[in-house]
Specification:
Blueprint (H helix, E strand, L loop, with lengths): L2 E5 L8 H14 L4 E5 L5 H5 L11 H6 L4 H4 L1 E2 L5 E4 L8 H5 L8 H7 L7 E5 L6 H9 L2 E7 L4 H18 L5 E10 L4 H14 L3 E7 L2 H5 L7 H4 L4 H14 L15
Parallel strand pairs: 1-5, 1-6, 2-4, 2-5, 6-7, 7-8
Antiparallel strand pairs: 3-4
Helix pairs in contact: 1-12, 6-7
Length: about 260
C-alpha cells in the first residue's frame, strides 16, 4: 500500500502548495512512484508542475463528480516519475454538486483504491477550507502534513484543523493521523517567528520536523516558470530546505515519527 498524504491547512497563503509540490518532487526524484492529486480549485500545484490547466481534457473535478478513473485523468509533469491529476476551475463548483450525491465524502478514497498499487506515494493538495473537498482528501489519506507559517494566528488555525482531523478519524477514517508539522516561511530575523516556532515545538514535540523552510525569493519565483524549486534552482536555500524536509518525511512511517538518524530517501 502507498503512503497517502494530504497536505492541509485551512488558512491560505501559508506555503501549502509549495510544500506539497516540492516534497512530491523530491520523492519522485528519489525513485519512488509518485502521484499528486490537485484538489485545490486555484490549481497552483498544477501550474507549478508545468501543466496548463486550460489544455487538459480531464481533471480532479471529473474524478470526484463524474467518477472518472484516475488513470484517465492523470498526466505527466516536468518531474520524471511524478504523475499529476490536475485541477481546473470546474472544481470550484464541485462542493455544491457533491452535496446530494451518495457517499459524497468517500468518492476520492474510492477512486484512489483502483490505482493505489501503482504508486509508492500519493499526495493530495487540499484547498484552504474545511469543505467537502478537504473532507474527501482527509477521508482518503492515511497521513496529514501541516505546513505552518511562523506568525501570530498560525496556532489558532492549527487547532481548528486538528479538531477536524479528529472528527474525520471518529466518523470516516480511523487510520488518519497528523504525521508532520512543517514550519515554513521562517524569517530568522524576527523574534515573533522564533517565538512561534518555539511554542509549536513545545506543544507538539516530535511531530514538528527539525528542518524549517526559510522565506525564499527562489521558492516564490519557481512556480511562475512551471517548475518546482528543485528544478528551478537546486542550490537555493529553499531547495536545500525542502530536500531535508523530504528526508524527514520519508523517514517517518505511517504511524508517526521515527528516529531520523542514519535515514535517507
Amino acid at each position: 500500500m502507498p503512503r497517502i498524504i494530504a497536505v492541509a491547512n485551512q488558512k491560505g497563503g501559508v506555503g501549502k502548495t509549495t510544500t506539497v509540490v516540492n516534497i512530491a518532487t523530491n520523492i519522485a526524484i528519489s525513485g519512488k512512484r509518485t502521484l499528486l492529486i490537485d484538489l485545490d480549485p486555484q490549481g497552483n500545484a498544477t501550474t507549478g508542475l508545468g501543466v496548463d490547466s486550460k489544455s487538459v481534457e480531464s481533471s480532479s473535478y471529473n474524478v470526484l463528480v463524474q467518477q472518472l478513473p484516475i488513470s484517465a485523468a492523470r498526466v505527466k509533469t516536468v518531474v520524471e516519475g511524478l504523475d499529476l491529476v490536475p485541477a481546473t476551475m470546474d472544481l470550484a463548483g464541485s462542493e455544491v454538486e457533491l452535496v446530494p450525491m451518495f457517499s459524497r465524502e468517500l468518492r476520492l478514497r474510492s477512486a484512489i483504491s483502483l490505482i493505489s498499487n501503482e504508486y509508492d506515494y500519493i499526495f493530495i493538495d487540499c484547498p484552504p477550507s474545511l469543505g467537502l473537498l478537504t473532507v474527501n482528501s482527509l477521508a482518503a489519506a492515511t497521513e496529514v502534513i501541516v505546513p505552518l507559517q511562523c506568525e501570530y494566528y498560525a496556532l489558532e488555525g492549527l487547532t481548528q484543523l486538528l479538531n477536524n482531523v479528529e472528527l474525520i478519524q471518529e466518523n470516516l477514517n480511523a487510520d488518519l493521523h497528523v504525521s508532520s508539522i512543517v514550519l515554513v516561511m521562517f524569517d530568522a530575523r524576527t523574534r515573533l517567528a522564533q517565538e512561534v516556532a518555539q511554542e509549536v515545538r513545545e506543544h507538539f514535540g516530535n511531530l514538528v520536523l527539525e528542518t524549517v523552510v526559510p522565506r525564499s525569493v527562489r521558492l516564490s519565483e519557481a512556480p511562475s516558470y512551471g517548475k518546482p524549486v528543485e528544478l528551478y534552482d537546486p542550490a537555493s536555500s529553499g531547495a536545500l530546505a525542502y530536500r531535508q524536509v523530504t528526508k524527514e518525511v520519508a523517514g517517518r512511517n505511517q504511524t508517526g515519527p521515527q528516529d531520523m538518524s542514519e535515514r535517507s530517501l
